[in-house]
Amino acid sequence: MRAEAGQILRWNLFIGGHLSSSVPVRLVRRTDAGQWVWLESGTPMWRTTLPRRTHLRDIPPEARSPHGYPVRAGRWPRGSALIHQPTGAGHAVFWFFGRGHDFRGWYVNLEHRIHRGEDIDVADHELDVVVAPDRGWRWKDERSFAEKTGHPAYWSAEEAVAIRTEGRRVTRLAEAGAFPFDGSWCTFTPPPHWTRPPRGPAPAHTVLRAP
Predict the structure, then answer these.
(1) pTM for this predicted structure
(2) CA angle 90, 94, 99 (to 5 degrees)
(3) Which of 50, 75, 148, 168 has the most CB atoms in a 10 Å sphere around its CB?
């Protein structure tokens, strides 16, 4: 696949095998070590249509439609983010920026990625790590991670150990002030000619496909 800075990719987040959201992002850089993509605040996107005040992660997989849920148009509600996806790693690192493009901190999403052409399919592992600008860190969603462990739609107890180990490996980098927590990329700004990507067609697949 060609790797041209600025090209539009689709970041598709799956929870328990079902699509939660699909957001267009722009490729910043791709190397053998991984790729960086830019997610702009307010980007037109697709999100799963669910009952009001319900989140996909709170619906047991056995209670979901086997074919996934319909999607509706929306916009990315959080701040802009630079996302580093290391090759072969079970995580991605987000650099989050505020309205004035001030750096707000890092977010480590523990995940499994499958690249399919312009699609980045992300199987979310629930457990995450929040890293402050001063590199202090904390686990996020430990309780729901534990509740999902052992369910066939999520991960086994053995896989849960590996997921947490991956998270702990990344936190050691934060404690040491090593990349990606060494201050690099904290002042990144996208080229001024990059506009928000268009929403594009609705996702063709709302259930995660096998590799």
Answers:
(1) 0.95
(2) 165
(3) 148
